[in-house]
Amino acid sequence: MNKAFEQHNKEAGAQPLGRPLITPLRFEDGRLMLLDQTLLPAEEKYIQISTKEEMWEAIYKLRVRGAPAIGVAAAYGLYVESARYAGESVEEFMQQAVETALYLESSRPTAVNLSWALRRMIKKLTETASSVRLSVQQAKELLLEEAQAIHREDVAACEAMGEYGLSLLKPGMGILTHCNAGTIATSAYGTCLAPIHLGQQRGYGFHVFADETRPLLQGARLTAWELCKAGVDVTLICDNMAASVMKNGWINACVVGCDRMAANGDGANKIGTMGVAILARKFGIPFYMYVPTSTIDLATATGEEIRIEQRDGEEIYRLWYEKPMAPAGIKTYNPAFDVTPAEYITAVITEKGIVYPPYDINLKKIKEE
Ligand code: MRU
After folding, report:
1. 211, 259, 266, 297: which one is catalytic?
2. Which end of the chain has the lower number of beta carbons within 10 A, N or C?
3. Full-prediction pTM beyond 0.90?
4. 168-197 confidence digits (pLDDT tens)
5. pLDDT given at position 5
């Protein structure tokens, strides 16, 4: 499974990625700071998160977004809220931590990294407390250490996905991406944009086409901004232009992220991803989904079971416009994600290696490796 990657590294004389240009969150001197992504690309501003309510709002409003970044932010959010506990009862502390985790988990339903990270934090706490007598201070430290471990592991996962992903690409390729699964959607580097950043450092000269990604414009506001900043050749297109650029022969590969992959390989990602995958099949272009193992949800059998977040219809016709772009009272349908059937996914890139069909067998193997 990892042969292509090893061979590629050898030939490329692989160097690790440098420092990320910008990160979606920082935890410094006990303060949790989030890059407010709703302000991009006009303004790069970090906001402090001090309570669970602020964390919930930041996730719901997409100030922090992208499956891995949401998971890491929520883990720190749970710590920050728990650190405010002023009592001395560790049982009460733990009860409140569980309540905070459930509350934060309710902010967005589709990206599994959110519940995955929060449950991991609570599991660490309860398992440790069942074997040693913890003080409240020790319990707080445990939560911080676990959040930092989740953060570190996410950086390493993105670096590894960059290398695996790059082994599938060739210099000079045209690459289409949808939404933003880049540096600011993760702790660093991104999932599907990690090989593009890496390729940029190694002189691959990729030509990236970024779907604008209606309605919240993550492709235009975030991917185009992030890649421009990194000096990557990027061309912004409207979502409905993807078929044309494929037909023109300008696209050699499609790369996208994932919010939750079911056990059979069906993958939920930003609304519009499924259309890109179907077009890619039509034009004979490989379609790669980047899925850290924290995003593989073996408890969900197929995409049918993935809960798709429905958002306010005003996002479609009002949020980013000076004036409403539809008649008052218009009916709307605004699902935030769709599910790409496994059959359209050429390969799944994880931090542990590249997974090919049959996904029902191979995803389980890699997750449990
Ligand atoms: O609604 P968003 O902006 O959080 O959606 C983000 C995506 O769909 C990403 O592609 C996905 O979370 C993967 S991020 C590495």
Report:
1. 259
2. C
3. yes
4. 999 999 999 999 999 999 998 999 999 999
5. 43
